Q: What sequence folds into this?
């Protein structure tokens, strides 16, 4: 029973992300490196926000549960903002690196386009964010135990897995939209990404009422997905051609570097 | 073998050592006028290649030697681009084995409790116990342990350099082969025994003897003589993992962390200081126009140790000689590539990383996994080490000389271990308790 829960939740949480990784990223060394670097940047942002939260907890009143919860909410908001700051920092770094690569190389085109970088870095952020959120929970789901024995929700593992999947995919979409917004200097799009991230995180404050937190999250996921699709150059026509395998140019397997 | 060209070319600079490597093909591209500039980086990189290899001698930490950047005379139109592409490809060629080694160590630590059981038995190189009650005393003991350990490493390295200088090759070979015998047979037997104990598998001695005999014999052959490259790589990874597990078990808690820090500082000093034993080793080898011992370097490309009874990976846990053995292992084996044909030159150039690097990376991640049972810390250390390795390889491509592979990775790893353990962990625990997501 516990093994089934473990495997089920792992595949729910990481299935799409691992599939994306295997099919689109694993074969290109440069993309893998930028994915790991994206994960690293997310990690650093988490570190900084944890530091601030930790300091604030140390100077606060540890006995007051309300204050602790308030501090936690503050920590969440701060963490979201810091993640977006670090996404921007990563964008700047990648622009500089790309320029460097360009001057070094003899070719006129970059070995990896900014759109690919947006996708890869978003997925990197997503992987790390998802992993940090859910790995301990998955590890606990293997061991002996019963969920919700003290009256908490029975669906803890399952909802965590679904939430994690949503977060990973959302990070990927946010990455694509964010980088595109920075490229085209569309600051309203940037603000929209930050606000939607805040929205998704704040929705989780309502857990364990999963209906009110998961369903809107998935709605946001769907909308962000459509937005990212159009941002990345997709359209209904492309989609049709891709699904009916009519146009080789748009199949990712034949994706030429731009 | 068209080595004569490179021989003449390379004697001009102190590259007598590298002359035995595959010579750079004349880079003929009439329309490309950057040909001359291709040569010098090639040569410089080759120097650094061997220096790096020799540096690998010095301590268990690996020299990251990048054969690729020297192999710019390829038939691609844009060699800088190619260098970078090669760079990325070779970063991945190192990421994969490092990741595999860490995965093996973490899996073992999490499933087999033997390696995390506290024991009073300690290595003779860390004689001070950490079972004291006062923090100050414990810290003092761990620093003393570290000093002893590092001095043992330095002394052994100097001893190895002296042996090499006075041409006691048989002694070195014998020592390394003995060490690798012990590692491949005795330590893998111990590991197998613990696995059987954990999973409560009933096993008889004759079967175990057969298994261990086969494992060890094939390992000795593939590492010291000829064998398929993937098999050799797999054995090197397994051997590094075994070594790392022994270190994790027998090094006391705080000593392990201080040792990790100290050895990365030592690595930095040993590589960048002109008076290190490693440099002496390289210069001696260059004077004699000999390759340094091939051995415990993990090579991601084809490498045939033809006619070279390469000293094995002397690793035995109780002896710091591992470090030296590894270091000797680090050395480049340029000659081994001679039998390759021209068409295979591209395959020859792999990136090389010393096994000591594998070991210390795995020790760091393994200790992160062992203490606390928290996966976030393990993940954070893993990513930190990979990023450190990536940065080191980037620096290697920029500076084109041998660099220590330990300092950056271990520094990042240590920073992330302590900060994740103390700062991030409480935060994430609280978030998980309320099921908040960031």
A:
């Amino acid at each position: 029973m516990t093994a089934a829960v473990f495997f089920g939740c792992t595949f729910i949480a990481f299935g799409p992300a691992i599939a994306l990784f295997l099919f689109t990223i694993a074969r290109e060394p440069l993309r893998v490196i930028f994915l790991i670097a994206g994960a690293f940047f997310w990690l650093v942002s988490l570190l900084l926000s944890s530091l601030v939260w930790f300091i604030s907890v140390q100077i606060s009143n540890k006995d007051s549960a309300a204050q602790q919860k308030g501090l936690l909410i503050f920590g969440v908001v701060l963490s979201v903002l810091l993640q977006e700051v670090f996404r921007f920092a990563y964008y700047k770094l990648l622009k500089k690196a790309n320029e460097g690569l360009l001057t070094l190389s003899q070719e006129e085109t970059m070995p990896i386009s900014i759109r690919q970088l947006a996708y890869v870095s978003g997925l990197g952020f997503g992987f790390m964010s998802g992993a940090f959120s859910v790995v301990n929970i998955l590890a606990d789901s293997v061991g002996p135990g019963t969920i919700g024995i003290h009256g908490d929700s029975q669906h803890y593992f399952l909802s965590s897995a679904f939430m994690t999947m949503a977060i990973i995919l959302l990070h990927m979409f946010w990455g694509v939209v964010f980088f595109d917004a920075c490229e085209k200097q569309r600051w309203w799009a940037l603000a929209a990404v930050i606000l939607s991230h805040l929205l998704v995180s704040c929705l989780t404050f309502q857990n364990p009422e999963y209906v009110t937190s998961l369903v809107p999250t998935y709605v946001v996921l769907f909308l962000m997905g459509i937005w990212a699709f159009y941002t990345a150059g997709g359209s209904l026509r492309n989609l049709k051609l891709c699904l009916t395998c009519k146009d080789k140019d748009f199949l990712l397997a034949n994706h030429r570097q731009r | 073998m068209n080595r004569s060209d490179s021989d003449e070319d390379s004697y001009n600079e102190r590259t007598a050592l590298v002359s035995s490597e595959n010579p750079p093909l004349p880079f003929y591209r009439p329309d490309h006028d950057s040909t001359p500039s291709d040569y010098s980086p090639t040569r410089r990189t080759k120097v650094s290649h061997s220096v790096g290899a020799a540096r690998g001698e010095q301590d268990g930490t690996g020299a990251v030697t990048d054969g690729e950047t020297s192999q710019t005379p390829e038939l691609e139109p844009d060699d800088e681009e190619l260098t970078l592409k090669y760079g990325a490809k070779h970063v991945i060629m190192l990421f994969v084995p490092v990741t595999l080694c860490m995965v093996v160590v973490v899996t073992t630590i999490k499933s087999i409790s033997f390696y995390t059981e506290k024991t009073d038995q300690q290595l003779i190189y860390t004689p001070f116990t950490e079972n004291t009650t006062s923090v100050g005393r414990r810290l003092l003991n761990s620093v003393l342990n570290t000093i002893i350990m590092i001095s043992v490493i330095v002394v052994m390295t100097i001893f190895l350099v002296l042996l090499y200088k006075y041409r006691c090759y048989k002694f070195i070979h014998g020592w390394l082969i003995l060490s690798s015998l012990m590692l491949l047979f005795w330590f893998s037997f111990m590991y197998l025994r613990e696995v059987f104990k954990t999973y409560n598998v009933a096993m008889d001695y004759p079967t175990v003897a057969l298994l261990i005999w086969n494992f060890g014999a094939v390992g000795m052959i593939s590492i010291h003589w000829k064998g398929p490259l993937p098999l050799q790589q797999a054995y090197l990874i397994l051997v590094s993992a075994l070594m790392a597990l022994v270190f994790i078990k027998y090094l006391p808690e705080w000593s392990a962390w201080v040792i990790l820090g100290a050895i990365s500082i030592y690595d930095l000093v040993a590589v960048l200081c002109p008076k290190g034993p490693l440099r002496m080793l390289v210069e001696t080898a260059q004077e004699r126009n000999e390759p340094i011992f091939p051995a415990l370097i993990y090579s991601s490309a084809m490498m045939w140790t033809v006619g070279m009874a390469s000293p094995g990976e002397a690793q035995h846990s109780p002896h710091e000689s591992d470090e030296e053995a590894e270091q000797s292992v680090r050395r480049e084996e340029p000659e081994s590539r001679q039998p390759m044909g021209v068409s295979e030159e591209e395959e020859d150039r792999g990136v090389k990383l010393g096994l000591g690097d594998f070991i210390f990376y795995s020790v760091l991640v393994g200790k992160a996994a062992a203490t606390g049972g928290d996966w976030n810390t393990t993940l954070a250390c893993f990513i930190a080490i990979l990023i450190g390795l990536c940065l080191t390889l980037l620096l290697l491509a920029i500076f084109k000389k041998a660099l220590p592979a330990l300092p950056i990775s271990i520094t990042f790893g240590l920073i992330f271990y302590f900060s994740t353990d103390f700062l991030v962990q409480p935060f994430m625990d609280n978030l998980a308790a309320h099921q908040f997501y960031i």
User: Anything to note?
Assistant: Chain A has one domain: 1-255.
